[in-house]
Design a protein that fits this description.
Helices cover 69% and strands 3% of the residues. It is mainly alpha-helical. Strands 1-2 form a two-stranded antiparallel sheet. The longest helix is centred in the middle third of the chain and has 22 residues.
Length: 132
């Protein structure tokens, strides 16, 4: 369910976070799948509690705001939904790895595709699905 009662988010901050998600997923594929635990934590905070409570979001909002490149304000509802998907996909991927399955790469690659579409093309699948 989308929520519109939460503070709006800056577009370029969200895109910067998507870049971080892409990089963490790539590092998980190359270095260690346990790095996906960071995405589980971020997805849980930003998806279920809100971006305004996530330490990394607050950091990037401050940094990009200081340089005047934070972008425009967007509704956070669809972004929260996207972070719930991030939480579930990274949890499934981490769980599959912990169980010894090689299928853990499938959710990680899906996250790379969708997060790259967000930061490179400003295409948010959740926004598209909800018509935001």
């Amino acid at each position: 369910m989308l929520r519109f009662d939460i503070p709006r988010v800056w577009s370029n901050v969200i895109r910067f976070e998507a870049l971080g998600t892409t990089l963490v997923c790539i590092l998980a594929l190359v270095v260690s799948p346990w790095l996906l635990g960071l995405l589980v934590l971020q997805g849980a905070i930003r998806g279920f509690i809100g971006h305004h409570r996530c330490p990394s979001h607050l950091l990037w909002k401050t940094v990009l705001g200081r340089f005047g490149v934070a972008g425009r304000l967007e509704d956070a509802g669809a972004k929260m939904f996207a972070n719930k998907v991030l939480f579930f996909a990274s949890s499934v991927s981490l769980g599959l790895y912990a169980a010894g399955s090689d299928l853990w790469v499938v959710p990680s690659i899906a996250l790379i595709i969708f997060s790259t579409a967000e930061w490179a093309l400003s295409f948010c699948a959740a926004c598209w699905a909800y018509g935001c």
